Structures are given as C-alpha cells and as structure tokens.
Amino acid sequence: MNVVHLDQELSERIEALKSTGADFEAKIHSAVNKAVNDVLDEWVDQKLDQERLAFEAQHAQLVDTYLHKYVAFHEGVLVDADESERQLYIRARQRFQHTVVAIFPVDETSEMRAHHSTRTQLASRMKGN
After folding, report:
1. Could you tell me if 115 and 122 are in contact, meaning their C-beta atoms sit under 8 angstroms apart?
2. Of 128, 76, 70, nearest to 103 (Cα)?
3. In the chain, is it the N or the C terminus that has fewer CB atoms within a 10 Å radius of its CB?
4. pLDDT digits (tens, 9 = 90+) for 16-50
5. 36 vs 31, 33, 40, 71, 97, CA distance in Å?
6. pTM to 2 decimals?
C-alpha cells in the first residue's frame, strides 16, 4: 500500500470527522483515488501530445523507411517498428511497462493510435484492436 501525505490541517479535519461514520473513510479513500487518477490522466494526455509532436516532426523521414508499418515513440524517440500493430504493442508494453508509448501507423497521411502502459486505459484502448 502506498502512503499519501496530506497537509496537517487537512489530516486534522479528516480525523475530526472520522467518528461521524464508517462511510466517511470510504468517501475520503474514493476521493483521493479519483483525484490521483485525474492527475495521471492529464499527465498521460500531455505525454501523448509530446509523442505526437515528435512523430509529426519526423513523419517525412518515417515515410521513407517505415511506410505501411507501425512505429512506437517513447520520450520523443522512435524506439521500435513493426508491420503488426499488435506485435509492436506487445513489445512496447513489455519494454516500457508503466510509461507512455505512442504507436503510429506510417502512411502518407498518418493519424495517431496511441497506447500507454498504465493498466486501466491500456486495456480499454486495446479492446478495439
């Protein structure tokens, strides 16, 4: 279990209200998890935008080498390529487990298909593939 350190004043308020019922603690737990998930989702979106920009900047060169293939970007760098999006995804997930990796199809007018390795969104994005 991970520990979250709250501001002293907030901790004192929670302690004071704990005695109001068992439901209160569950609500605090739920609120903290939702807030952390929201921050993580925002961070992932920012990272995917950075990967998209790197892909777009390199698109012309990628077409020369990887036309009709898929490429994976991590931290703005091309890290892998494959004819199979699924195989590329599997390798990227194994290699970069809990970090953002964006996978793009390389064609004349490519659009992003981004994946990242945080468990919840990764599973939902792969259901369609």
Report:
1. yes
2. 70
3. N
4. 887 776 687 788 888 888 998 999 999 999 999 99
5. 9, 5, 6, 30, 19
6. 0.71
pLDDT at 119 over 50: no
State the DSSP string of 41-92.
HHHHHHHHHHHHHHHHHHHHHHHHHHTTSEEEEETTEEEEEES-HHHHHHHH
pLDDT, tens digit, for every residue of 77-110?
999 999 999 999 999 999 998 889 999 999 887 5
Residues in the chain: 129
User: Which residue type, as a one-letter code, is found at position 63?
Assistant: V
Cα–Cα distance between 12 and 7 in angstroms, integer?
9
CA 59-118-45 angle, 5° bins: 50
Integer Cα distance of 56 and 42 in angstroms: 21
102 touches 72 (CB < 8 A): yes
